Amino acid sequence: MLASVLRQHLKGHYGLLLLGPRQVGKTTLIRESLAPSDSWTLDLSDFAEFQRFLKDHDLFNRQAQARLGEASPDKPVRVFIDEVQRLPRLLDGCQWLYDRHPDRFRFVLTGSSARKLRRAGANLLPGRIVVKHLHPLVWEEMGIGSPDPVVSPFADTRRPGSSPAPECSEFLLRGTMPGILAAPDESRDDLLQSYALTYLKEEIQAEALVRSLDGFSRFLELAAVESGNATNYQNLAQEAGVRLNTVKNYYSILVDTLVAIPLEPYLRNARKRLIAAPRLYFFDTGVRNAAAGLPLDPSMLKVEGGRLFEHFVILELFRRFSYLRPEWRLYYWRTAAGAEVDLVVDTKKGLVPVEIKYAASTRNLHLRGLSAFMDDYGCSKGYVVGNFKAAEKLDRRVTALPWWAL
Questions:
Q1: How many angstroms separate the most distant Cα atoms in the chain?
Q2: Sheet with 129-133, side-by-side order of all strands
Q3: Which CATH class is domain 3-133?
């Protein structure tokens, strides 16, 4: 979904910073979008290359000036720096080159840690570079979509895929990471289980983001288990055996390294006492399951199916809106009395409440929270997303949608 946007953007005047978790395909997407003959690539994930630029602070500027001297005057030098968070000071070099040669350089950067860039005081080139995010695959990219997207309240944010897909258990268990879906069936579980270890080793240990890797490892498993629940820092601190402030810092690391997505509560109602703790969702259901140490077996869905289905739908909408409707915001809603709505979409023109039910039938659905929210905020439409076979009108305000029709 992002590929066509990037290709069009790369023809423009501004540079690009593409952020995303490890192994979602940032490097592949950029390489496929750039003509190799027209770009200079620095791969900072390559240790030898990283060491060269680490030891020689002026090497980047010297090589860039040499490239400029060899380039045609009417053609900008395009520089691709992969994993730029490993050496944030290169961004200062990018700005220096931009300031002196505003029409001669275009920078394309990728990164997996906004935290490392901020903590280093990195210059994110305001006014010179556009920031985009890449996520695991959305449903459209997997050929999944509604043959009749008009039933969807968000139909204008996507094109329909090739066909509906009534079975989602594989996505609940193993997520939608492109490398996982492309791997042979017998390799997927091992790849997912190694992802958490890779994350700990390469993102946390290598970047020295925490003092105790053991403590963070215990926290990571607990955070994965609690993914999607209201965050209780105190309980997590006790179970992980670390201090309260340490747990809060660990959570900020998950968000800043793009492993977790925060979902804030919707609080705009003075008449009710509302729950104010954020919920954090791991960026992929498969990575969440592996980090939590859960068996990647269909029998696990008997216990975890409801929670994973909620993750699955929320992550899809987060990714889709990130690409196509960045001005829209996602929240959840819960009162102290227990009334709850899984997802509230603020479209800027109105609120759309969405309940998410891991159910194959609309019978016996409990929608008191949805009705209470719609009454309080004057919503004319609400939706229930489930594992249904077809869309149904439940009453004058509420429509039930199969997940693939969303």
A1: 72
A2: 39-43, 77-82, 105-111, 15-19, 129-133
A3: alpha beta
DSSP state of 152: S
- C-alpha dist (Å) from residue 212 to 22, 43, 117, 240, 241: 22, 29, 21, 12, 11
- Residue that has been written with the tokens 């719609």 in this structure: 374
Cα(376)–Cα(373) distance, rounded to whole angstroms? 5
Closest residue by Cα to residue 191 from 86, 321, 286, 87:
286
Q: Which of 164, 152, 104 is nearest to 128 (CA)?
A: 104
Whole-number Å distance between alpha carbons of 406 and 400: 10
**By the 8 A CB rule, do 158 and 320 touch?**
yes
CA distance 30 to 17: 11
Which residues on adjacent β-strands are paired with residue 280? 262
Structure tokens belonging to residue 228: 């999607």
Of 5, 264, 286, the C-alpha closest to 134 is 5
Span 208-265, pLDDT tens digits: 567 777 888 888 999 999 999 888 889 999 998 988 998 898 888 888 888 899 999 9
**pLDDT tens string 348-366:** 889 999 999 999 899 888 8
Tokens representing 137? 């695959």
Closest CA to 226 of 171, 294, 163: 294
* CA 24/CA 21 separation, integer angstroms: 6
Which residue intervals of the chain bear CATH 3.40.50.300? 3-133
* Spatial contact of 231 and 279, defined as CB atoms under 8 Å apart: yes
**CA–CA separation, 320 and 175 (whole Å):** 16
